[in-house]
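Cross-posted from the bioinformatics board.
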Amino acid sequence: MSSELALLNNYLIVGAMLFGIGMIGFLSRRNMIVMFLSLEIMLQGVSLSLVAWGRFHNDFGGQTLTLLIVAVAACEAALALALVLTLFARRDRLDITDWQLLRESNQPPYYDEPQPAAPPVRRDQPLPRLPVAGVRPETSPDETDYRPEI
Amino acid sequence: MTIETLLILIPALPLVGALLSAALGPRVLRRQSHWPVVVAVVASFLASVVLAFQVQRDVEKLPTDSQGFERVVTLWRWADLRMPPSDASLQPDHSPSGEGTSFRVDVVLRADPLSAVMLTIVTCISALVAVYSVGYMHGDRGYWRFFAYFGLFVFSMTMLVAASNLVVMFVFWELVGLCSYLLIGFWYEKPAAAASGMKAFLVNRVGDAGFLLAMFLIWTFFGTFHLHSTWSDGTLVQRGVIDQAMTSLGAAKTLGSHSAPIAAICCLLMWAACGKSAQFPLHVWLPDAMEGPTPVSALIHAATMVTAGVYLVARCLPLFAACRVTDLVALVGGGTALLAAVIALTQNDLKRILAYSTISHLGYMFLALGTGTLAGLTAAMFHLATHAFFKALLFLGAGSVMHATGGVTDIRRLGGLRRRLPVTYLTFLIGCLAIAGVWPLSGFFSKDAILQVVLNRSASGEDAELYRTLFATAMFGVLLIDFYMFRPFFLVFHGAEKLPPEADGRVQESPGVMTVPLMILAFGSVAIGAYFEWTAGLARFLAAMPLPSRWRELHAGELAASVQTVPLGRISAAVTLVGIALAAAVFLGRRSKAAGLARLMNVFGLYSLSYGKFFIDPIYQWLIVRPVRGVAWLAALLDRWAIDELVDVVGWTPKWLGAALRPIQNGLTPFYALAMMVGVLVLIVMLLM
């Protein structure tokens, strides 16, 4: 019995380590592909602990769930990589901080290094105006009484 | 037609006319917008005449010991609120058993001699002024608007007169005030007209507050709003305010605690009447109301609406007499009569002179009512009728002058118009003679009736001294009438011809649609007084009013035996003639005499006092308007800088909170992930603990 428990402990420790490594990777890296890999590692950590518990309880539920996770993870990987590819195609960079558009509108964007100042807007050039066109609409003389501005 | 049908038709017709004018005027009728209202008001007048004759016929068939003639028609039940019987504190003190628990307001119209007389006067003057307005307002931009307001006013005024119930009366009391406001401010582009309308409305509101308070007291003490008792098939359904008050005062024998609330009610009603009828403390709005079109001044501010106060006091006169508030009424009336007459002496605006003369004559009516007798009531109503005719005539004459001269009312800028405006000249002369009281024009008889009742009252009874003083005041006022009426008359129509530049040199007589009403009114001013005096019709007619029997017995003998100790008629006629002669001497010759008289009077500051209208407007300005404005300024300051800020703080709090939390929405995915991890960790730690 105690060996079973020791085995479970070992599995769980490995699973937790995988999860922790994945989490640290996810939080500390900005490369989208590496972040995605870290995410997969976290998922595997969880899957491993599920399998361990399933064996400990003599129940196939854990392994079934793990198979499901593998299937879902495959789909998710396809989707996520497609997204990463699209984002990469837009900026030619994989840095996640290039995509901050969901911040509050009045919050300053985060940059690693100071950006060059924007060129000043020239105000001396007036905007083009359209010439007055058309005929003056007809107004009844009664209307001018109570709407003197027309 | 039955009395009931007529009673409904009289107010309903002008209302329909007003609605038609308002609906069809701007697009369909345009320059013909007067037709619905003129036809409706004339029809209403005819209905009133028929009503008056039917009432008179029924009055003559009355048995001698009857309570008086009245006929009521209930239109609909307006309010019926039942109070829970357990709530004893809300129940009136003196209510008959079981009656006081429900607050019931019926819209009831009544026909009795007083309302029949009043309806006839109101609709008669309205019809004539409506016809006159067709000429006077011709070509005005708001032609249909004028006639819509006009019809609404006639409807409100006839309802006010016919209402049997104080609540309904109050509604129409307010509605005539509204019509007055709308018509004074008819030319609202003129700042003076808009301000005058507002002033009239506000001053009237001050008076109306008295009416409201009086109604509260009446409900508290009598549990009904009907002035007269309600009868059904010879059985008493509900006892009216006057009956209840007379009973409770009669039971008390002496004037004590029972009379105090009734006296308070009467004082408040008098305050309301002062507001509507422009008596002393609240008279300031009427001269300014002359900014409105002249037909409006003639109808509303001379003949009809301003007499509503007189009518109200006349209706409640037994109450006033029972608790001796009549002294107050007489004092206010006599004082105002003199005050306004003195002011009228020196004004230079023709319409303002007429306005002060109206205030003065309304004062005479209140003075007559102040005697608290049936004869006094008759004299007041008599003067009300004759005054309606000659004052409407004078105003319409002034309007005719304005029509001819392009709206100039300053008598110093006019002169010698008698050759150019012969009809206006003659009718204005008749009006002046009638108001001055030259025998046998109507003013002579009605003024004489008032002087007679005041003299009778001063012969005996309580406060005889007061009435003696008031009689002397009234007699002096008669002399002043000649002066202030003939001064503008001589200046405008006699002397060297002076035409203002506004007239453009084209001063000519007004069209027939304006002169014919003038002639009819002139005929009325000549004839109506003599008719009523020599047939004694009005006195007998009004004696059949439903009045408490106790009061009726008290004054039954007075009508027949008016104490003729002095030949009053001759004295007042002589005073009148002397006054006219003096006025002619001063104003007909060289102008220097008038200026000299003014200088002489100014030795004691009398001239400036009169010219400055006794400085009542500035006094009100400093005592009431400025302090109120100061308080309003303070309140505005408090509102803007304290209350507004507090409210804003409530709105700003979420804003500030949001601003404080906003930096965490920075759009950086790693940051979100970290926040989520930390959150999960915190949750786990909390779960494990």
